[in-house]
Amino acid sequence: MKRACFVISILLLASICTGCAVFGRGKNFVPFDENALKQVTTGKTSASEVTQLFGPPNKIVKLSNGNAYVYERSVDKGTGVWLVVLTFANFDTRYDRIVFFINNDDVVTHFGSSFNSETASYAMPF
Amino acid sequence: MRCLSNSIIGVAAALLLAQVLSGCVSLRIEKMQEGVDVAPPAIEFIQKKTLLEEVLAGYGAPTDLVDMNGDFALHYRRALYRGLRVSMGIPLKSVLLPNPSMEAKGNLLRYDTAVFIFTADGVLKDMKYEKGTSRSLWEDYWR
Fold first, then answer.
1. How far apart are CA B129 and CA B122, in angstroms?
2. pLDDT per residue as tens digits for the range A61-105
3. B44 interface with A at CB cutoff 8 Å
4. pLDDT at B94
5. Cβ B62–A97 below 8 Å, yes or no?
6. Across the interface, do A12 and B19 touch by the CB < 8 Å criterion?
7. What was the pLDDT predicted at A94?
8. Cβ A68–B65 below 8 Å, yes or no?
9. pTM above 0.90?
10. Where are the domains of chain B?
11. B129 to chain A, minimum CA–CA distance in Å?
12. Which residue of chain A comes nearest to B22, CA vs CA?
């Protein structure tokens, strides 16, 4: 009797513990190097030098006194856990971005950057 | 010995019940985050005085950059999505025609946002900030 109960318990425990976990990582990759920003000087660096250093921008925004070149890439990490009746899902997306403001003379007047893609994390949704 | 046997039967019964319920009850909790925290504007940011480079130095590159017919805006945004789904059903479809089930789900997408509007010369004209994720999830959902 005792052995039968034990075996049944083990089998039930094994079946109840069926579930799975999924970890996913995605990248929207654009090969720009953040260290190249050291070579950019506002008031001096030209638009063509920017594209030489960083490649073609992801987006160009027309402004009244020039253009803005936008570079963007992202990393997303997903975590999923299925435990029979419970499902947990978490998605975290972070971006690296650089924006160059270029005046009508094709010279960089300002630029800003944020590098957060490496902070994307696997986590539970609480 | 009898006590041990009873507790084993109890555990087995509980596990069996959970196993039976596994096709009937489910709970799904979701969270999705896009971007990083958007901090409130520094008190040093003053309209008609603060320059574009000061905002870029503090906030970095914006999420969006929008031309506004002469002026332009930098838009910093973090999105936070939360979803919850509870479903209950009795899977009798293969045995009987009635297949009663009930499902309740809700989701809420909220934003932390900072918007800085600049003149064409790069001088701060206006700014707005809202931390949507700090408000009550429950109240925002039912509002």
1. 19
2. 999 889 999 999 999 999 999 887 889 999 999 999 999 999 999
3. no
4. 58
5. yes
6. yes
7. 97
8. yes
9. no
10. 24-142
11. 19
12. A85
